[in-house]
Amino acid sequence: MVKVQYIGPIRKFVEETVVDYNVDTPISIQELIDYLVKKYGDKFKQEIFTKAGDAFFYQILINGQNIYKLEGYQSKVNDGDMVLISVPLSGG
Amino acid sequence: MKRFAYGKVLYIDLTTGEYEVKPIEQEEIKRYLGGRGLNGKLLYDLISGKEDPLSPENPLIFGVGLLTGTPIPSSSRYTVTSLSPLTGGFGDGNSGGFFGPEMRFAGYSHIVITGRAKKPVYLYIEDDKVEIKSAVHLWGKDTWETDALIKEEMGDSELQIACIGPAGENMAKIACIINNLTRAIGRSGMGAVMGSKNLKAVAIRGSGKVRVASKEKVFKVLKDFRELIKSDMSFKLFSKYGTPGLVDVYNSRGVFPVKNFQESWLPDAESISGEVFIKKYAKKAKACYNCMVHCSHFYELKDSHKEEGLEFESIGALGPRIGITDYPTILKANHLCNRYGLDTIGAGDVIGFITEVFERGFVSKEEVEGLDLCWGNSELVPVLLKKISHREGIGDLLAEGSYRAALKIGRNTEYYAMHVKGQAIISADPRGLRGWGLGYAVASRGADHLRAYPVVEYCFTPEKAEEIWGIREAVDRTAYAGKGKLVKWCEDVRALADSLGICKFITRTAYLLPQQLNQLIEAITGVSFNADELMKIGERINNTEKLINIRRGFSRKDDALPERLKKEPIPEGPSAGMTIDITDILNEYYQERGWDLKTSHPTPQKLAELGLK
């Protein structure tokens, strides 16, 4: 079981902000995204891979750690981990 | 700048009732652009540094950006600058809406107000006509009543009005100036300075046009702008949720202050999320002058009120920071702050401060008038806001802001005042945001995120960071390396945006780089700058503000975060265990700036390089 929290416009693809997924763990972020794309379709894929300048619009974190600091898209998600797919921090 | 006219400077002395209009030197525009930059320069030239911020001698300067009111999108901003009664040093606030463009249409780049009227007055400006009118009948009215009454008596519902409420009249040091009912010159206590001059409002009407240097270039800019904005982060998030969308963003990283920074994470923030605000309260998106981001909303709280809003900082300050996690209480408090003319950040901060020091036993029940000060007391919030605005009872102490209130209480309570230079920290915990922390510490107006606004700390890739600052870790929020370079760079870029009068939600990421800003400047003014020249202007603006603070006795000791943030780790959540110690990155920042490590003062070489003295 992996929990995914969605923050920002990507929220429109899911019923709740936090969704539980029954996937085999450990699973890489790349495998998890493939799974989510299969579930929610091409528009989800387009949304998650939107670019803003040089960077992807969404940031992906595992238990609060940006995957940049881990192993990128090969970072592993374990049972009970929280994955965050969110717009970047901003400042109001 | 042959076709382009920036506007004139209107100098008004409220003591004598005299005024005069002077042109602005073209050379100064090239050195400071306008808006915040020129406001700082005007203030620097007008003061000795010995003035009491609430004395008649302290000038209050309204300034529009170089591009305010032009066809450039999001060009609504104006800045009000003065010595701050809250910090004791350089102070300013910046606001959107429609007041700034109207001032531009009336033909003024700046209005410099000095002196003190014998009785309450307001300024009525209609193009070249300038009148000082009695406001005796308006004194005591809130900002909404004032706005309506001036429009009614002048028979003009389209008048643009910037005014103060009871908080400004009573010189609460966290008083703001309100335009368009809910837009605030929020920070630094500019409302108190206006109140000290017996100036209730500035009402303005302009019929002039803004000429541009090249229509072709303007159309090209607008076309490019539309394309760029579609993929911009700010647009995607803020056009739907507004800044309330940031509640989840901050809370998910565990940097959302709770109970006066005792905690920084809510296990469940759903009740105050952007999602709930949009679904339950927002009725329609709302934009400022010529803006396609439309980050604001018209919202309604049934059986209470309707207004424009809401902002993330108001949610944070009037919400979790005082233990409140329901929208009805936050919305009511926000509305009261708008009508009283109180800075929502300063108000929430000081309520959080007094609640904590009372809870810890530093002040007695008698000293707080027997009030039931506790976290999440929804019924007490409106009572306290009223007391602060009218300086009634305990409100007289709280109107000073948390730092000055702590100094008056003594008993080491300053430890619980979450401020820098007397200005309250915003609702983003610097313990988990190193670049932001440094930005708060060095901000010329104190504890402010918008001076550096270092969002590139999260938006740029490590590769981009290496390209600009030579350090990949600069974009890791939990790392220290490179933050001095990053914050210096960001401060200089942000000074440009403030001086152009373009909203930071456009210049935040889409039109971030100086060469991009030049496209806008050139199309409107016909003058072109290269990136280095613009960065130098940004640097000059920041150094000028620094020089004002030096005149006021500020030094390295004032560029500091509250001790608490160094000693107490965030207890729970995604940033659990984090503290912040800026000693090393402050050195890096000073080195980048060319400032003395011991005193923080600019070196003579740096001043010569910038043409300052």
Please name the defining characteristics of this protein.
heterodimer, A: 92 residues, alpha+beta, Ubiquitin-like (UB roll), two-stranded antiparallel sheet, 2 helices, 21% helix, globular, B: 613 residues, Aldehyde Ferredoxin Oxidoreductase,  A, domain 1, Aldehyde Ferredoxin Oxidoreductase Protein, subunit A, domain 2, Aldehyde Ferredoxin Oxidoreductase Protein, subunit A, domain 3, six-stranded mixed sheet, 17 strands, 14% strand
Protein model, in words:
Chain A is of the alpha+beta class and about 90 residues long. Chain A has one domain (about 1-85): Ubiquitin-like (UB roll). Chain A has helices at about 30-40, 40-50, and strands spanning about 1-5, 20, 25-30, 50, 55, 60, 65, 75, 80-85. In chain A, α1 (about 30-40) packs across α2 (about 40-50). The mean pLDDT of chain A is about 90. Chain B has a 6-stranded mixed beta sheet, sandwiched between helices. In chain B, α7 runs antiparallel to α22, α12 packs parallel to α14 (about 380-390) and α20 (about 485-500) crosses α23 (about 530-550). Chain B contains 26 helices and 17 strands. With about 625 residues, chain B is of the alpha+beta class. Chain B has 3 domains: about 10-205, Aldehyde ferredoxin oxidoreductase, N-terminal domain (Aldehyde Ferredoxin Oxidoreductase,  A, domain 1, 4-Layer Sandwich); about 240-425, Aldehyde Ferredoxin Oxidoreductase Protein, subunit A, domain 2 (Orthogonal Bundle), CATH 1.10.569.10; about 435-510 and about 530-610, Aldehyde Ferredoxin Oxidoreductase Protein, subunit A, domain 3 (Orthogonal Bundle). The interface of A and B includes residues 51, 64, 88 and 90 of A.
